[in-house]
Structures are given as structure tokens and as C-alpha cells.
Amino acid sequence: MNSKGLAVLMTSFEIIVVAGVIFMLITAGKTYAESLTIQKINTAEDIRMMVNVLDGIPGDAIVEYPKNVSAFSFILRPESVIVFVKDEPEQKNAIRSFHLPKGYTAEGTLEQKSRLCLEKKSTKILLRECS
Amino acid sequence: MNTKAQIFDVARKTVFWLVISFFIAMIMGGTAYAFGSYRKALLEIPPDLPSEFISLRFVNNPACFAYLDPRTNTVQSNSIDISKFTQEQLDNCYSTPSEKGYKEHNFRLVLQGASTELKTNNYYFDGRDDFILEKEVTLYDSGTTKRGILVIYVQEKIGS
User: Fold this and answer.
1) What gap in Å lies between CA A11 and CA A8, rounded to an integer?
2) Which of A67, A102, B23, B61 is close enough to B57 for a disulfide, judged by CB 3.0 to 4.6 Å?
3) Cβ-defined contact of A28 to B31 (cutoff 8 Å)
4) Helix and strand tally (H, E) in chain A?
5) What is the dihedral of CA A36, A37, A43, A48, to 10 degrees?
6) Whether B32 contacts chain A with CB within 8 A
């Protein structure tokens, strides 16, 4: 093998290795980005707990979720809260259920807004954007 | 450089890059795992916290046992209206689905010094509770009030 050919071979090999490392970095970055899933689950869990707290206080109240939630959309139903990322498959939704006292109801939606509020008005719990 | 030296150089570099690639992959995988574990540890919820939040309703919500003052129409926080302390009222206050409700929080409620004991519909853990919560309450009984303690036995969930 002549030395020029060998140099080309070596350069090609090193390019392949560097490309491989870049690919792995992208994969690792993607994995890290998937931590959005963790945030989604935790947000759903937080909202479930907030609903339970609102059920457990006498009188009306309004509480703001202390985090920017613009990455997510929300649906609050009488028996559960669904947190999801728009355009993601339904299987990836984070759903957390709760059990309200009889006569109580919960409702509301929020789509990719930064500030989320939960409001308790008499026997209704409302999820909405903070004003 | 002679041919043998060149071949040796190629082989040496190839092995070097293979080994380095393996270690880089290991380090990246380990870092991603460490980040995930760290975040999970930071965000872990103490097991008794959700139970504490749910049980707030027993003593603060008039749809449960809390005393509603008929004159002012205000709810007395941390109170129990003895006339409401019934199984029917508990079923209206907190009820889990009959099929999978055993995976939810379930409770056994006892007023210290009283014989009445109430259980939510999927409570099965008599004496083997995950933990116990106690709440100091004001008991309203036929126009009289006294201090009391509501003991809440918690069955977190059965199974995984």
C-alpha cells in the first residue's frame, strides 16, 4: 500500500469515528430531551396533589402552579388530569386520577401557556390560564 | 515510513479509536443515567405527602365531616361534625373505583376514644397500615364542642 492511499484510508476512518461520536452525542442529547417526559409526569402528579389540597380547604381559593408550563397542554376532568405535549401520540400522555367528594367537579383546559392556575369556586375546581 | 510501520500505525489507530469510542459511549450513557437518577431523586415525593393532602378534606370539607356553621354558613377548619361521621358520608367524601381502587390511597378513620371506625371502600389493611396520620380536631356534637384526635390509618396501595 502506498503512503498516500494509507493517509486517505486513515482520514476516512477518523471521519467515520468522529461521525460516530457525533451521532452518539446526538443520541445522548435526545435522551436528555426525553426528560420532558419526567417533567410531564411530575407536573401531572403536582396537579393531582393541588386538586386534593383544594378539596381539603374550607372556602374558595386560587393557586398558581409555580413553574412555566408552556411545553405542555392540560385537560382537567372530574376524575383525572391529563398532561401532554401537543402532537405527541396519546400513549405518551401523563394521566393522574383523583377522587373528588360527591357533588364536586373539575374541569378546564390549557394549551401551551406559561402560567397555569387552579381555582376552587364552591364545589368546582377550574384549571385555566392565570390572568 | 516503510510498509510494515504504516500497517502497524493503522492497526494501532484503529484499536485506539475503537477503545475510545467504547469509553465515550460508556461515559455518555453513564452521564445520561446519572442525570436521570439525580432528577428523579430531587423530585421524589415523600410517600405520606399525597395521603396528607387527601386527608385534609376529612376535617376541612363540609362534603366530608367538617362542621358547617348554620348561622354564618362558614366551614370550621379542622373540625368534625359528629352527626356526619358515618360510613355513608365517607363514601360520598372519598370513594375509589371498585375494580382498581386498591391501587389508590385508602383510609381507615378512627376518632380517638370513640368506637366508630370508618373505612374507605377499598381498605383491606387492618393493622398493617403503611403509616398513620393524626389530626387534632374540634368535635361538634349536638351544640357542644370538645377537642379530639382523628386517627387516619393509611393503606397506600396494594400491589405495584
Assistant:
1) 5
2) B61
3) yes
4) 2, 7
5) 170
6) yes
Surface of B (1-20) touching A: CB under 8 A: 1, 3, 6-7, 9-10, 13-14, 17, 20
Higher pLDDT, A9 or A45: A45
If you search the block for the grid coordinates 361534625, which residue do you land on? B81
Per-residue pLDDT band at A34 (split at 50, 70, 90): low
Question: Which residues in chain B touch residue A35, judged by CB atoms under 8 angstroms apart?
Answer: 35-36, 39
Grid coordinates belonging to A56: 381539603
DSSP states along A99-122:
-PPTT-EEEEEEES-S-EEEEEET
Q: Which residue of B lies nearest to A38 if distances are taken between CA atoms?
A: B40
ipTM of the complex: 0.75
Please give the Cα distance from B10 to A6 (Å, whole number). 8
Q: Which of B116, B120, B115, B152 is nearest to B135 (CA)?
A: B152
Q: CA of A118: how far to CAs of A27, A70, B11, B94, B148, in Å? A: 37, 16, 65, 20, 32
Contacts of A21 (CB under 8 A, 6+ apart): B21, B24
Q: Which amino acid is at A104?
A: Y
Task: Report the DSSP pairing between strands B79-81 and B131-141.
Answer: parallel
Residue in A1, A10, A13 closest to B3 by CB: A1
The per-residue pLDDT for B62 is: 94
pLDDT < 50 positions in chain B: none
* List of residues 6+ apart from B124 with CB closer than 8 A: B102, B106, B155, B158
Q: Which helix (H) or strand (E) holds B109?
A: strand B106-111
Q: Give the cell for residue A111.
A: 394549551
Element (H, E) at A81: strand A80-84
Task: Output the nine-digit C-alpha cell for A21.
Answer: 461520536
